[in-house]
Structure prediction request, 386 residues.
Amino acid sequence: MRTRSGEVIDRALALVSPAGRPGRGRRRGPARSAAPAEGRVNVLMPAGEGSLGDEALIFGTSELAARARRTASFWLLGAAPSLLDRGLDEVRDSHTIVRMALSRLNAHGRSRAQGADLIVVGADTISGDYEHRFLAARVEALNHASAAGRSAKLVNCSETRAPSTLSVRLLGGLRDDVEVWARDRDSQERLLALLDRPVALAPDVGCLVTPRGSGRFRPPSDGPFAVFVPNAHFSAHLGLDEGELIGAWRDVIRALPMPVVVLPHDVRGFPGDVDLARRLTAVSGAALHVPTDVHDAKDVLARASLVVSARMHACVGALSSGTPTVGLEYLEKFRGQFAWYGELGRTVPERAVCDPDEIGQAVSEVLQHDRERWTVPSDWFAESWL
Prediction:
């Protein structure tokens, strides 16, 4: 007997022709979906409240929607009522829109979810590093919106060099008029090769988040300071126990050329970045700041003289503020994003993310460049997915 997860994946795979998809050439621009409607657009997010990376995607998209004079309804994993108090127009539970795609929604709910264009923010969820059911349900939701005559887009995506076979088959099931947008040129090239369909390009939308301090941050000195951003996923990803990871990053922090603040960029109980940050400060002597939200985090990143980060959206927050940044590569999504910012940043490959010497070399390189007031170029989103 098939499980519920299996049924979702089977339905999505049934959309792929056994003979394969017809060739469409390697055009880089998107195949245009239905013309975007004026007004409301549903935006289906990859995670929920507390992941500051996802908050960066939410509030960056909100800014982009405001520029396009559109109202964005954000659909998250689980309820997040506190986000309504922070300027968003509407926040809903994404399980509803996924049930819509699976034809398990009542008439009122179907009308609410189906009556607007649909944008799925792919981020790093399209390569098979997370549940395939997660991707399958989103492919169905996009196809459902497209079949109903709505504009449907899979946007802000990263693709790895070796995605799972099943994830590629699922993406191959997207209707031809669903637009696909990569967030870096490496991912664009990989998706062009894998899917043989047009793929458009725009930088990660998290760069549009505005910094806004909470008033709680206390710099560790009157002079320059650095920020270190940990990632609790690294322990399992690198095959290290947490003690080894803490020991390695303690040495990295101690080797930085200025006082350090450890800043977790995910404040949920899982995967445990806050606990990891506290343990790092206890053994390294660094200060700790747990941000209240993504705006508070970006304020600290913007005020720093250097950022070393194992979380990509912390890197985006720092780079888009003009802060020299070293990224500790994870899931092959850093290098392509850093390419948008030129000499302001360097990435350290996965094999060296616990190596103080290699990280120190990258730090020395980014600090050679004079920091300038930096703003997101206006032409980055001149043609965007909203």
